[in-house]
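Reading a protein record of the kind used here takes only a little practice. Think of the row as the fold of the chain written in a discrete alphabet. A record is reproduced here so that you can trace the correspondence yourselves:
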Amino acid sequence: MNYLTVTQTLVCAFAIALPLAAADDAQLLAEFQKTKPDVREVHVIAEQPLLVATTGKPGTRQTAADWPRGELLGVFAHRGDQIVPISIQANEEFPTAVCIERQTLDSITFALADDYGIRSNNLKIFFDPKTYFPKRIVRFAPIRVRRIRVVAGVVTLSGTDGKQDFTARERNGVWRVTVAPAVPPATAPPAASVAPVTPMPVSTLGQFEQARPEKAKQSAAAGAAEIMEEIGPNQRVGTKLWVGKAFGDGEGAVGVGDIGYFNQATQGWTFLHIQEMADWSASALLVEPDAIWVGLLHKGEGAGDSGGLLRYDRTSHGVTKTPLPDVIDKIVRVGKRVYCGTSGGFAIVDQGRARRFEFVPQLDGSYVITPVI
């Protein structure tokens, strides 16, 4: 089963390997050997409140523990001087990085990532807090929110994990989530709001070298670079079609990020030349009278990396960035807030501060909206 369809930069707590007392180490090794008799090495991720460890050779990751294919991930509780196993999971798919994302009194959630450090899926273990008996173990992919609307005064989000479609509605600060089987996505990309008669001009190699000197040096060392810019996210405002440039940054393809517009009245193109965007492709766009909001995306050879949310002030021409680890797919204003649909749920930006939210499964199979701490 492929869990790499939804990408999100891995951000975790409890990602440092910890020392363990010799007596506990022996108990831990013995517990793992009940499942895998040839276990010889154990590496602890966290000791409190639950003891979490993996088997196998230690990796070189700085922000998460390695969980090699064929090795075990164990979750244990402390009962006096004894270690009580809650769950021992074997990795039967692909090498991954694992770290603890969230713990509660009756569950623990892990974030898993691929070799690029990009979120692949999650593992959540529910257990009885008294007996430590596992109640339910579920793997789930982050929910990608690509549509945000206000329906009859209610903020409504639509997203998918590729298998199920999710709809979340907010009333008086409370989110209600409904789930349905996934509808196959449309194969054709959405058309631009206005078809520009004149093709969008792309950067010259000289402009690329000036705007992105470090990338130009890397490209020169690797071989010839080819400018591959195209119209990305777009929005019609009056007679203008505002666009964000989209481009890849791998296998010889390069580009210069920017925001501009095609003027239907003059049949001409104008670009803002935002230096802070030069290294970034645009993933989402919202044009307002006083500001332009852009989702920043690095499209390399692996999965895309988020550069967060950029705000361009149309009066002062100043730029501010709000860090977001998830790729932004949609930007919508609702009242005083800006909502961003992302590859890992959604974010709400209010007065320059962003709060992130995820869709999290519950013991009964339902989903709730949970803030990311």
Remarks:
- The longest strand covers residues 82-90.
- The chain has two domains: 22-140, 144-371.
- Helices lie at 22-35, 205-211, 213-222.
- Residues 22-140 form one domain.
